[in-house]
Amino acid sequence: MHLLKHQWSRLARTAWANRQEIIKAGLGRRDLFKMGLLTSAGYLVAKRGLSTRAAYADDDDNVCSSPPTRAFYDLLPTPRDGTMKIQTPTTLTPTPTAAPNTAAGEGRKITHQAFTQFAPQKFYAVTQRAGYVSVSPDLPLQTLWGFAIGTPTENKPIDVPGPVYVAHYGEPILVRNFNQLPAQDKNGGFGLPSVSTHLHNGHTPSESDGNPCDFFERGYFYDQHYPNVLAGVLSDHQAPPGVDPATGGDINEAMSTLWYHDHRVDFTSQNVYKGLAGFYLLFNDHDTSDENTGFHLPSFPAYDIPMMFADKCFDSSGKLFFDLFNLDGILGDKFTVNGKIQPVLHVSPRRYRFRWLDAGPSRFYQFFLTDLTNLSAHNLFWQISSDGNLLPKPIRVESVRLSVAERADVIIDFAPFAGKTLYLENRLKQDDGRGPTDHEIRSAGQGNLVLKIIVDGPTVADHSQDPATITKFYDLPSTAVTPRVKRTFVFSDSGGGWQINERFFACNDIRFTVQENSVEQWTLINDGGEWEHPIHIHFEEFQTLSINGRAPATSPLVQTGRKDVLRLEADASATLFFRFRDFTGKYPMHCHNTIHEDHAMMLRFDIAPIGDTRQSP
Amino acid sequence: MPTITRRTYLALSALAPVAAGLLARESRSEDISSRDVIRNRYFPNLVLMTHEGRQVRFYDDLIKDKIVTINFMYTQCEDGRCPVTTANLVRVQKLLGSRVGRDIFMYSFTLAPEHDTPTVLKRYAKAYGVGPGWTFVTGSPRDMEVLRRKLGFVWANPVRDAKRSSHTGNLRYGNEPLQLWSACPAMAKPEWIAESISWVDWPKTTAAKPG
């Protein structure tokens, strides 16, 4: 704990020094304001130091200064402890129908395309509404928006993050999603009570995907049909070896960690920041949730813990603050995990699976395991997935990097740390919403300690398999196929609007049409030297063929797996391989820095029986 | 939630008027409404001049109780983007029809106040066929700079931020009393911009339905 104290006092000293400097110089408010124009790292740090005590971000558009909060006080909410709820099936009245049940108040406008084929076997109800939520013992209760299990009349409390869906391949489900958010004038300063819940990155028919343009208003509900099928299930496409006999899809494209979040066009960043996000875990005969079967991954929920990272800013009264007028991207100075600021997790000395998710809005992380009593130690662990997809096999790592919406499942063996305390530490330096600052990695103990992990649980049996002995999860599907079309997308800015191929987003603007059951090759180019863009493509994952002209094996290892978010660094380009199968309709590609996304860095493509061959759509 | 003790407050306020001023605002902010939080942070009540030569206050006269669009421009835009943007917004104004000037108000703030006087702006507005309800606004260079920064037409990169043309591409739209704010590209299709503004429109009787 010495180091923590040291950090606080260092910050306090900086603040003191800055104030003295201002006083000595006789600077007035306008001068202070002018200082806000200076963006050299030194000045940003200085102002932050000043404002920790003196003022909340006044006259400064890019600096967040939340009130002080105690670190490592609240427990991390988990499904294990029942503090992160697991969604439970119910009976829906009226019975869901393939066509929108407009008469009953359904806001859906498109008929389910695979409702009969993959008839839902389980039904869930969830209600989006406002509620009081505690994020820290040192801040007032927050009025957040969340998902409550059940229908509006059940009137259950909201969960932030929302309840965890535990889904299984081969078991289609339907979620009736009620919008009971407050009226437009009761949003508490930000957020639009008009929603579209996206299941990121489900192999989901368009009308249930949570498309940004399929939003529905308060008072209505929307039935979302999740077939939980493997990609390729309806395809006559040249299926690579690996066809799953049970479902007909490609087992090598099985997914594990998905999440759902609001995707309302132009208001995604506000609505997600306000709480509308949760986990959706997908299991199958290999990734079973039971460590005694399949791949023998640590059992859910006892030893398998989802963690959603989101940085937040609070105003001087302690209320959650969202910077409405910002173009670069927004950063918070409080680090929440599963909705609590810097929480604590107790574990037993055995292997755990953690599912890490960067829920944005704009921060990038690089997580290390830090032992503050031994800062020179390299505490290694295993990364087993990249986004929703298990890697071909576990990779031993010292850190995992995440950009917005990226996920990584990791396995950490706490046996060697019995009795010790570790911290999950973000050592990636980031000064503003554009992206990491010079990719600088801070030294151990100097980053953001986001989670305290105390290895003081009882010694328990561990039937999970040592990742060192796991030689294979899945094969990577072959990319030795000639693409039907090669397309290029340039991501750029236009003095205040973000663009793809110099065009802006509009819901009815179909930029190109992918032919169903075909292979495409896309090259994404970041034309800006300042911003990093985490680019997300809905519906189908990609394999990275090259980054900056080089094979992905020579870049960070995670790129070798199947992914649904590509971290497109400044001035970088990446060539991606896609197979589009099974369902038709509209899907977006967009930057997942949600500020950029809400400022038009998005496009719509459609999947249809006949596609086009536009190369720069 | 008080975040500082009285002793700290006194200690700090003894140090400098600037700190005292900042702290005074902080202590007041405890139970202000979210609408006021937004107003305090983004909408300084600066005295400005319209292209019709009218003196106005930014918050009181231009923003309060209204649906608005906000963009930044200057009449001598070097890269030619401003004229195209203005022409695009003229089409938006036509789509919005008689509501512009009644409950929707469009504002274009100059990035070059030293040149863009009310007279210059009036000529510019006339040349583009700008209708009533869309106001071009100028003011002292310092105030216009404050306004630009407050409204977030700002880039973290100081080189980019120093260029006027970096700030002409964005259109803010919002509904002040309902606290609904977002933005879209000023060069998006006029129909898309009009649709976007509809999302922050006054609640329609049909929008909400008992659950």
Q: Biggest β-sheet of chain B: count, sense, barrel?
A: 7 strands, mixed
Structural category of chain B is alpha/beta
Write the CATH fold name of the domain at 102-304 in chain A: Immunoglobulin-like
| The first-level CATH class name of the largest domain in chain B | Alpha Beta
Strand fraction band of chain B? 15-25%
Distance from first to last alpha carbon of chain B: 35 Å
- In CATH, the architecture of the domain at 102-304 in chain A is Sandwich
Rounded mean pLDDT of chain A is 89
- The CATH homologous superfamily of the domain at 102-304 in chain A is termed Cupredoxins -  blue copper proteins
Offer a concise description of the structure.
The complex is a heterodimer of chains A (617) and B (211). Chain A has helices at 2-25, 29-35, 41-51, 268-273, 594-598, and strands at residues 122-133, 142-149, 158-159, 162-168, 173-179, 194-195, 197-200, 216-217, 221-226, 257-262, 277-283, 304-314, 320-321, 334-337, 340-341, 344-346, 351-358, 365-370, 381-386, 389-397, 399-402, 407-413, 421-426, 448-454, 485-493, 498-500, 510-515, 518-526, 533-537, 542-547, 562-563, 565-568, 573-580, 585-591, 602-608.
Salient structural properties:
heterodimer, A: 617 residues, mainly beta, Immunoglobulin-like, 8-stranded mixed sheet, 6-stranded mixed sheet, 9% helix, globular, B: 211 residues, alpha/beta, Glutaredoxin, 2 domains, 9 helices, 7 strands, disordered C terminus
Overall description:
The complex is a heterodimer of chains A (617) and B (211). With 617 residues, chain A is mainly beta. Among the domains of chain A are: 1-63, no CATH class; 102-304, Sandwich (Immunoglobulin-like); 485-608, Immunoglobulin-like (Sandwich). Chain A has 5 helices and 35 strands. In chain A, strands 12, 13, 14, 15, 17, 19, 20 and 22 form an 8-stranded mixed β-sheet that branches. A 6-stranded mixed β-sheet of chain A has the order 26-25-28-33-30-31, with no helix packed on it. In chain A, strands 3-2-1-5-9 form a 5-stranded mixed β-sheet, with no helix packed on it. In chain A, helix 1 (2-25) crosses helix 3. The longest helix of chain A is centred in the first third of the chain and has 24 residues, at 2-25. With 211 residues, chain B is of the alpha/beta class. Chain B folds into 2 domains: 1-31, no CATH class; 40-198, Glutaredoxin, CATH 3.40.30. Chain B has a 7-stranded mixed β-sheet, with helices on both faces. In chain B, strand 3, helix 5 and strand 4 (104-110) form a beta-alpha-beta unit. In chain B, helix 1 (6-15) runs antiparallel to helix 2 and helix 5 packs across helix 9. The model of chain B is unreliable at 1-30 and 205-211 (pLDDT under 50). Classes of the chains: A mainly beta (617), B alpha/beta (211). Chains A and B meet through helix 1 and helix 2 of A and helix 1, helix 2, helix 3, helix 7 and helix 8 of B.
